[in-house]
Amino acid sequence: MLNSWLPSASGDISRARAALRLTGASAIHVRGMDKLTVDAVREIEQIHSSWIEFEVAGEDHSLMALCADDIELWPPDAQPVLGRAAVSAQLVGSTTRIYAIEITDRRIRGSNEIAYLTASYKTTFSAAQDSTRRQAVGSHLWILEKRAGEWVVTLVSWSVWELAATSATRPPPTSSAGPT
After folding, report:
1. Which helix (H) or strand (E) holds 95?
2. CA distance 118 to 116
3. With bands split at pLDDT 50, 70 and 90, how would you rate the model's confidence at 164?
4. What backbone phi and psi angles, to 5 degrees, belong to 53?
């Protein structure tokens, strides 16, 4: 079985390396990578919270300031969007209005050089052509790297578990001076 070549609790790393060589797999060498500090976790939590705030406020430029130049977005059921220019164009071209994003089960793991964040979300939104409010429920995965002493978002991938109209589907009508 697969776990037969994994290191035992006693730390038999050499056996695992030998098994990896035999199977043709590669191992990631993690020399010098320490666990995340409490301060690093706080910084990443703040980046995540700021991203959510910027997304709800429609502040695409502020959101992009949190990203590396080689940012990658991996949406569900669509091609990845790669690089700052492409991601920025995708955000600017969006016709979705986001009303709220609720985050639960946020977990941050990694080292002081690279970290990943997982969380569940519930987003309330509408499309420009249809004011019906909808909710998307799913999860997302972020990868962040510490570059030049600052954490930056390098990858965001998400899944959608559920998509439905909300009970408060239409905002109240507004008066307009033009023809209806």
Report:
1. none
2. 7
3. confident
4. -60, -45
Helix (H) or strand (E) holding 177: none
Domain ranges of the chain: 34-165
pLDDT-above-70 percentage for the chain: 74
Rounded Cα distance between 176 and 180, Å, is 8
pLDDT in tens, 134-143: 999 999 999 9
The DSSP letter of residue 6 is: S
Report phi then psi at 23, rounded to 5: -90, -5
**Which residue has better confidence, 19 or 53?**
53
Which is nearest to 102 in space by CA: 65, 142, 55, 67? 55
Record the tokens describing residue 13, joined without a space. 């790393």
The residues, any chain, with a CB within 8 Å of residue 162's CB and separated by 6 or more, are: 135, 136, 137, 138
* Among 101, 123, 119, CA closest to 109: 119
* Selected residue with higher pLDDT from 9 and 161: 161
Contacts of 168 (CB under 8 A, 6+ apart): 133
Candidate CATH numbers 2.60.40.1180, 3.30.750.24, 2.170.270.10, 3.10.450.50; the one for domain 34-165: 3.10.450.50
Residue 63: DSSP 8-state: H
